[in-house]
Design brief:
By secondary structure, the chain is α/β, with parallel strands linked by helices. The protein has helices spanning about 25-30, 45-50, 60-70, 100, 115-125, 145-160, and strands spanning about 1-5, 20, 70-75, 75-85, 85-95, 110-115, 130. It has six helices and seven strands, in the order ββαααβββαβαβα. Strand 6, helix 5 (about 115-125) and strand 7 (about 130) form a beta-alpha-beta unit.
């Protein structure tokens, strides 16, 4: 068990309409300095396909994709004790300060990438989220096409004008 502090800044701007939250960056994501940095993770493939856009390759393309499509990206936890990338092992969880985003952007919907992120978001905010299937490569129960279909909810919410 290792005490981990979140090291990645949220990606958002004042035009962001939806907030997508993971649980905590994996060791690979922390090492490469980008969300969903593990090559086996299907987040970027799923969300880009859900928006009908090409797969963003570089960190700059990923940030530009999110901002263009009015998607904010961050994680629920600011720190926790965790074994590797195992959400099931999380203890002593502390939340991020979501006011950093919601005070500047008009967030209309919150999505979580997996049940653990949804559980902690509910615990710390008292609010629900739309729980998407985990994009982890370890989530063999959900194929890529089903993942893309689920992530279309993000595209739909981001496209709604308020």
């Amino acid at each position: 068990m290792e005490k981990i502090r979140h090291t990645l800044e949220p990606i958002f701007d004042e035009n962001s309409r939806v907030l997508v939250l993971g649980t905590m960056p994996s060791p690979v994501s922390r090492k490469v300095g980008m969300y969903y940095g593990n090559k086996g993770n299907r987040f970027w493939r799923a969300i880009s396909a859900a928006f009908g856009e090409p797969f963003p390759q570089t960190d700059e393309e990923k940030r530009a994709f999110l901002l263009k499509n009015r998607v904010a990206l961050w994680d629920v936890l600011e720190s926790c004790d965790i074994e590797g990338a195992s959400d099931a092992s999380i203890q002593n969880a502390r939340p991020n300060d979501f006011s950093r985003i919601v005070s500047r952007a008009h967030i209309a919907a919150v999505f979580t990438t997996g049940k653990t992120a949804a559980k902690f978001y509910k615990k710390f905010t008292g609010k629900g989220s739309v729980c998407l299937p985990s994009p982890s490569g370890a989530n063999c129960a959900v194929g890529l096409s089903a993942l893309v279909e689920s992530y279309r909810k993000v595209a739909e919410a981001a496209g709604e004008r308020g």
